Amino acid sequence: MLSEVSVLPYIFRRILQFIPTFLLATLLAFFIVQLAPGDFLSQLKENPSVRPETVERLRKEFGLDQPIIVQYFYWLKNFVMGNLGQSFQYKRPVNEVLPGPFMNSLILVIIGTVLHFAVSIPVGVYSAVRPYSTADKTFTFLSYIFLGIPSFFFALLVIWGMLKLQQNFGWDMPLGNKTSSKLPTDISWWRSAWDVFIHALAPTIILVLRGISSESRFIRGQLLEVLGQDYVRTARAKGVAENQVVYKHALRTALIPTIAGLGGLLPALIGGAGFIEVVFNWPGLTPLQLTALGNQDIYILQAVTAVATLLYLVGNLLSDVLLSVIDPRIRYH
Amino acid sequence: MTPQGEVLLAVNGLKTYFNTDDGVVKSVDGVTFHINKGETLAVVGESGSGKSVTSLSIMRLIPMPPGQIVDGEILFTGKDGVQKNIVKLSEAEMRKIRGNDISMIFQEPMTSLNPVYTVGDQIAEAVMLHQGKNKKEAMGVAADMLRFVGIPAPEKRVNEYPHQMSGGMRQRVMIAMALSCNPALLIADEPTTALDVTIQAQILDLMRKLQRDIGMSILFITHNLGVVAEMADRVVVMYGGRVVEEGDVVEIFKAPRHPYTMGLLNSIPRPGEHVHVPGQPKGRLEAIPGNVPNPLNLPRGCAFEPRCKFAVEACREAVPPLFDTGNGHMARCIRWQEFEQVQQEVTA
Amino acid sequence: MTTTVPTPVRKPRSQSQWSIVWSQFKRNPLARVGLGLLGLLYLMAILAGFLAPYGLTEYSTTDRISWAPPTPIHWRDAQGHFGPYVNGIRRDIDMETFRDKYVEDTSVTCPVKFFQTHPGMEGRTYRFLGFIPTSLKLFSVDAPCKLYLWGSDSYGRDQFSRVMYGSQISLSIGIIASVLTVILGLIMGGIAGYFRGLTDTLIMRMVEVLSAIPELFLLITLRALFPLNADPILVFYIVIGILAVIGWGGLARIVRGQILSSREQDYVQAATALGASDTRIIAKHLLPNTATYIIIFLSLAIPGFILSESGLSFIGIGIVEPYASWGSLLKVAQDGGFESLDARPWTLIPGVFIVLAVLAWQFVGDGLRDAFDPRRRR
Known about the structure:
The structure holds three protein chains of three kinds.
Chain A: H1 8-35, H2 40-46, H3 52-62, H4 68-80, H5 94-97, H6 99-129, H7 134-148, H8 151-169, H9 189-227, H10 230-237, H11 242-254, H12 256-260, H13 262-280, H14 285-294, H15 298-326, H16 328-331
Helix pairs in contact in A: 1-15, 6-9, 6-13, 7-9, 8-9, 8-13, 9-11, 9-13, 10-11, 13-15, 14-15
Chain B: E1 7-20, E2 23-36, E3 40-44, H1 51-58, E4 67-77, E5 83-85, H2 91-97, E6 102-105, H3 119-131, H4 135-148, H5 154-157, H6 167-179, E7 185-189, H7 197-214, E8 217-222, H8 225-231, E9 234-239, E10 242-248, H9 249-254, H10 259-266, H11 313-317, E11 323-324, E12 330-331, H12 336-347
Parallel strand pairs in B: 3-8, 3-9, 6-7, 7-8
Antiparallel strand pairs in B: 1-2, 1-4, 4-5, 9-10, 10-12, 11-12
Helix pairs in contact in B: 3-4, 3-6, 4-6, 6-7
Chain C: H1 17-26, H2 29-46, H3 48-51, E1 74-76, E2 82-93, E3 100-111, E4 113-116, E5 126-128, E6 132-134, E7 137-140, H4 159-195, H5 197-212, H6 215-224, H7 232-263, H8 266-273, H9 278-289, H10 291-314, H11 326-335, H12 337-343, H13 349-372
Antiparallel strand pairs in C: 1-2, 2-3, 4-7, 5-6
InterPro entries (chain C): MetI-like (IPR000515), MetI-like_sf (IPR035906), OppC_N (IPR025966)
Protein name (chain C): Peptide ABC transporter permease
Pfam family, one (chain C): OppC_N
């Protein structure tokens, strides 16, 4: 389906366009964080548990006595080189503190993305091909409910349900945290991977339910609209079989906005996972960010925001590239 | 001059109704006509007359709820020489006919082609579907078809997308796609209405030339009598879901026997020449007063009666049958003989 | 698209656009349900003081009853009289968990009284409609009994009353923040759309940058701007402000798009030719066209803000003590941990209210959208 116009220059252009946005976003976050009350250099100096050599090193690396805008460029330079600053709470470089929670959130996000498309596309297609059937009406009803329930409340309900199940039936439920506390520490890697997966399942499902609800209804609407288009009528008039009409002619066009939404999906999942991580005690980015907020640990706050923004931009880039592959009309602009 | 020949398609008493929330809409209510091999039949009428629904019924492209072919038969002799009743065919058998024995082109070329596939792909799809060719051969056929319909540099254009082409070119692509499998019958539903007048002339020329070259029949649906005069061998006039007049194109233009047809012809601004309508001064440009009937609530008698100058009491009582006025000229009006008399007096 | 299914002809009726929209809305059953539910909820918020038997922060320091279960109400007493009453509360020790347990003390009975005022009880006075001080309660009981319809929290405060008062905050924040967002969005979008050029680019860049940061993290970051232990009332306004800052981008984009496309319309050129000033054109010609979008935006933004505020309060950086919103009340359920959920499932009740409010707004919003859409006429 690719014509002679290659996708690479388009990717390059989009990356160039994203750089200023990234800079501005991280600058904004930096400013906001810095505007919070308290002067870090003096706080550091007054803090007895921080060694003077550390204070001096930080002052040099991050220009802590310089005006804010200069500090930003110090931070930027360090960020690009992989130095994310020092955490005041944990007294370790942010580079060491960040990866754990980041990967944990990423687990939820990746499983969530897969689930999101794996469920909403079939449900949406089925509802469009059999509109107003019992199944379709049930899906619509469920969508309303899932869209109306806040994720943290639903998470609480699910945990309560699991508690009841555990009490009444003795089933072993993965209640919160990333791993079971009951497992011995020297088990095989795939057993512990499975354990993590089981624990990730409930939070992930709750995470994506809202997205699946709205996406499947959206796909249904899009597909119904495309199926009413003239070129679909032309395909039928040519003698194309109905399932070919749906999957080859209609679905590709109908899914275009869904693919476009992929860019927003990643950051939405990361942000949305926040509440669920709190309820389930899942050690992800949001609990990290919340404790950083409580302790004014600015470099963690800044790093998490920067990383999340980066992911958003990457997601957008991904969806733009996918879009240009699928919809040839975009490439020519 | 009507080519005398075998009947290719015969529609007998076709009734297509729609079940809507407000009641049953009788879009097509007992329509009978036929098309011979190699001839062009024009179906004329206003919107709401049922002409599009008739053609979609022939293709079995009516959405089956809420639509339904309630009665009638559509007898068609395919390329295999076997006569079938389209109404009774299974969906699989019907798919073999669509795009292959009977092709259809539509009114809006701008939206009738899939924007995410090249025009070559879309033409080749029909070829691969019906003629079993592989992709490479089919694309070759596609390029040939583009050349056939007069698109310059077909080998290059075959890889282009619809949005890279003008409306006129897209309609040519549609024609190429429709003809790619050498159908016996082409149904053209207002193919030039959405195009510029100059392009319109080109497309009509093309269609005439292609018809001569491959000898196919054309069912041409339009509300434009000028196009009818250019293209058609025979004409069927529809009103309120029924055929109200049928006949040779010259006859219909010279001596219409139904008041609706008369009204249509008199609504065309033509210097000098007008059909003589009994009781009317010659040379006046007329509009037909009133509106198309509500398809949910058709009159018990003649559907045109509320707007008809010549209506009498008897017109309201029952739907008039189609009268044979000679020479294959049919008219659904109980006063047709009076019209014939008057016209003969005038020309005499 | 050619008409395959013919549309029947309707008798023409001339109506203003708003009466058409209203009659279409009325015909939508879900929308009616939503509107009714909203009416009930907002009525509850207005009458919160009247409906709540106790004050928002009322608890006894001498006789604290923490984590009491919902008080059972009895209807027929030992003598066979009919009338609601409750028994006293006695503290016992649960023999299995060795924790405090509250049981009914049947030796003490207190009738449930209706329409009582409580003169002298400072904690129970409230200001009806914001300015009429009164302590009239729909129902209450006298000491020493307690009427905890939905249990009490660790301080001994009545949860039912807190949910009632919480409705005032939860339901109003959504509306106030939305109105603020609309104003911001209109101004920014209007400026961007009308003046175009550099202003437009700047504003759209701002929107893009704001939306590049995931919402929760932006919320947390913005909250960090202000001291965490700020005055609770100030926090209320801070939360509203944060929500508005996050939300204006979407509407600004829509308004800008509307203006950009309307600019090219003939009536704008005609107005300019007649000498109308820029502000006049914006105010009288361009803005009314966006009214439909604004109404629909509001009906979708309000439930979103209700959810956002609940979320913020739930994780502790929204509404704080001594005030309550449904989200902060739900925090109580979370803080207790799993054993608290098990022992005190009624702490989940505020969540139900959040769901009801959001669903009601969503039904109304969908109903409005359909009512405005001419393709969906019933």
